[in-house]
Amino acid sequence: MIFYFTATGNCLAVARELDSDLHSIPQELKKEGPLVYEAETVGIVAPTYSGLMPRIVRRFLKRAEFRADYFYIVMTYGMNCSVAEREAVAYGEHVGVRVDFAATVKMVDNWLFIFDMNEQTAMDKQIPQQTAVLKERIARREKGFREPDAQQEAAFAAVSQRNCRWPEMTDGTQITVRADRCVGCGVCSRVCPVGNFYVGEDKKAHRDFETCEFCLACAHNCPSRAITLSVQDKNPEARFRNPDVKLADIVAANCVRGK
Ligand SMILES: Cc1cc2nc3c(=O)[nH]c(=O)nc-3n(C[C@H](O)[C@H](O)[C@H](O)COP(=O)(O)O)c2cc1C
Questions:
Q1: Number of independent structural domains in the chain
Q2: What CATH number is attached to the domain comprising 92?
Q3: How many C-alpha atoms does 2 have within 13 Å on its Cβ side?
Q4: Nearest CA to ligand 1 atom 8
Q5: What per-residue confidence (pLDDT) applies to 259?
Q6: Positions of the chain with pLDDT under 70
Q7: 68-80 pLDDT per residue, tens
């Protein structure tokens, strides 16, 4: 049994390789009452955001109860996972979830600020090889996690301030809708895991940013490239979705509004 969160499909693609019993975290969080899960093996697959698990994943871990013999967390990341494994285990401990094993998988970095998606997708990050090794490690029920080295600690120190200020970046950067490009298709409102977007009477997308996860599902999945950052992103025309994942998969995973 795997619970996953994804904005651009990397985590869903990895989760599919690991198990067939998949559950989307935004959909689970929609349920009322206690969230209690029982299975021999339970896994979480989530992206790394500034070295940590996304807030929505942390909310889920805090609320849920897991009855499992073996519990693992896999974090996908793009360039530097920094302290992700250690902090995932520590957060589990903090909310009473025993994490037996934590690991990371390097994939396309969907962070539009710094990376050009065309350059990212051109890199060979040996994803199938990494996933195959991960599968074996989980099959033999490996335990533990990798402690970050000094360089990874330094990378975390450099980005960790941002977490304090979600949904706005430290410098005030926000996600914005370009009205000149928006065609009011509503894809953003269906891929947003916290239901921030809606299409107004003016047939344009609007948002209420207070609860934004900054996952960038809106920006990457917008067919008109109408969603961007309030600062120039690296390549405003280049967006990413994992090639094995369809828009419909992201909608099924993340839509928390009526379809
Ligand atoms: C807000 C945000 C913060 C991120 N922080 C990191 C990071 O600290 N290190 C890293 O290597 N990748 C980082 N990334 C990249 C994602 O972790 C990576 O692309 C992930 O595989 C996306 O998973 P998804 O396609 O399932 O959404 C960040 C992405 C976002 C949107």
A1: 2
A2: 3.40.50.360
A3: 23
A4: 50
A5: 46
A6: 161-172, 259
A7: 999 999 999 999 9
